[in-house]
Structures are given as C-alpha cells and as structure tokens.
Hints:
Elements: E1 5-9, H1 13-24, E2 28-32, H2 36-53, E3 63-65, H3 69-73, E4 78-81, H4 87-98, E5 106-109, H5 116-120, E6 129-134, E7 143-147, H6 154-166, E8 170-174, H7 183-199, H8 205-214, H9 216-219, H10 225-232, H11 234-244, H12 256-263, H13 276-295
Parallel strand pairs: 1-2, 1-4, 2-3, 4-5, 5-6, 7-8
Antiparallel strand pairs: 6-7
This protein binds nicotinamide-adenine-dinucleotide.
Amino acid sequence: xxxxxxxxxxxxxxxxxxAQVFALAGHDVTITDxxxxxxxxxKSRIAANLRDLGEDESAVENxxxxxxxxxxxxxxxxxxxxxxxxxxxxxxxxxxxxxHVRPDTILASNTSVIPITAIMQGLAGRExxxxxxWWNPPFLxxxxxxxxxxxxxxxxxxxxxxxxxxxxxxxxxxxxxxxxFIGNRLQHALxxxxxxxxxxxxxxxxxVDSVVKASFGRRLPVLGPLENADLVGTDLTLAIxxxxxxAIDSRPGPSPYLQKLVADKKLGFxxxxxxxxxxxxxxxxxxxxxxxxxxx
Length: 296
Ligand SMILES: NC(=O)c1ccc[n+]([C@@H]2O[C@H](COP(=O)([O-])OP(=O)(O)OC[C@H]3O[C@@H](n4cnc5c(N)ncnc54)[C@H](O)[C@@H]3O)[C@@H](O)[C@H]2O)c1
C-alpha cells in the first residue's frame, strides 16, 4: 500500500504515535478522537515528537484531524483502532466503522490483551479484520505484532505486514489469536519469575533488575533466546531445563505477593515510589536508550 489512506481511531498515547509513523512514511492519515482536547492537540504532539527525534517536521502535514468518525474512515484503505482498552467500546466502534468503509478496507485493533476474535466476531467482513499490537512509544519501538484470527485472509495479513515493514517497523506474524500474543507472553513469563524471586526472599527487587541488566539483558538486542539455545546447544538447554524448570514459578495465576502489593496500594510510581527526580530520570534514561538503539 503506497500512499495509502490510513485512519487512526483514538489520539491518545498510542494513537498519535501510530499516526506519526504512518505520516512519516508518506501516507495520508486521518485521526479521530471522541475527546476534543486529545484530538485538538494530536498534531502539535506529533510535530513536537518529530522535532525531538530530528525527523522531517513537515510530515505532520500528512495528518488531518477529524471529529466525525464517519468522515475520518470514509475513504480509508486501512483503519487502526487505539481507543481505551474496553471490549464493548471496541466492538461498538468497529460495527460503526464497518458501515462507513469499503468492503476491502482492512480493520485493525491495537488492543494490548483483549482477544482480537472477541473484538471482531460481530463484523460482517471478518476476513479483513486483524490485530496489530504496537509497543510504546510507537515511533521508537520497532515491533508490531500482526495477529491473525481464524477468519483473517492471508492477503490481509500479507498487506498489513508489508504496510508496517515499509513504514520502518518490524512486523511479526502471530498465527493464532492467543492471550498476550508473543511479546507479552515472553515478557510476563520473565516478570512472574522476577516477582517470585523476591517473594521467596532469594533477593530484593533491585537485585533482580541488576542481574537482568548486567547479564542476558546485555545480549538480548543481538541474541534472542532461541539463537542463544542454538549457540549453547539444544542438549545443554535440555540439561538446564531438567534442573531449573521444576524449580521456577509455574503457578497459573498472579502471585499472592503481587496481589498483596496491590491490595496494600503499593503501586510503584503511581503511589509515589521513588522521588519525582528519580522517576523523571528513569523515564529520560529509557527514552535516551530507545533513541540510541534507533540511531544504530
Ligand atoms: N499504552 C501502551 O503502552 C499500549 C501499548 C500497546 C497497546 N495499547 C493499547 O492501545 C489502546 C490505546 O491505549 P493508549 O495507551 O493510547 O490509551 P489513551 O488513554 O492514551 O488513549 C485512548 C484514546 O481513545 C479515546 N477514545 C475513547 N473513546 C473513544 C471513542 N469512542 N472514539 C474515539 N476515541 C475514543 C480517548 O479519548 C483517548 O484519547 C488500548 O487498547 C491499549 O490497551 C497500549
């Protein structure tokens, strides 16, 4: 899809960043939001991001803000939804969108965890619907998981993969609509064990983070887990699993320790863990790191 007409529904944290990526790739983007303030500021937020990243600021001219949903999607080749994480809201929106678009317009949801199947099941044209799971910030994290449902046509998957690749993203085809897709399954397998190590008194939270950052975290940008298994040998991987897997946390639900933290209102930054300066420093370090990775 060259010079495609792309409609982004929701101009929040993710929506404005997704619009920015497509605008910078030369597409003709409309963005809509039910909250006027978020719609009104979308273009200025995109312009500020572009400036901060040293990208071509004129790309913001490819974005048009539209208050009316029907008007935003009417001519679209591709629609991506990034509204609140609320199933009935997403279902209602796609039903409405389907009334205003062509039969071949691709419809994508950026949901974090809601099954794509649940969002899209009521559509008349379920073969043109899929998930595209971006990561925050959308203009700095390359991955977009492209999630197939049992109804999605192979052509829709192929066109969506190409669209994101041409926009500089790293699309990954998720062949089954499973909770957490790929990235969050991997990420939260690690978080479960990280929490369990603290819960068992094996180390404190700072030590967990320090161990990750000072060891395999260093290698991850160039060595994925399965490349690593090839590197050390599947026989050694099996030997390690025989000893380690029976010992690590495999409880099916969230840990009681995590549940108690939440019940006690110990919510991390939200409950003022860390001073404002420490919080700002961590956020700044993350952005600076992501920018340096992009520039490599
Ligand atoms: N924040 C993340 O890190 C992240 C990462 C990947 C996916 N997601 C998913 O992306 C989606 C958006 O998340 P976000 O973090 O950008 O949220 P957000 O709250 O920043 O933005 C959501 C926007 O949707 C708008 N909205 C609500 N109802 C609407 C409607 N009926 N029509 C049009 N706009 C409407 C809101 O006004 C708001 O501007 C969610 O499904 C979320 O789970 C978030």
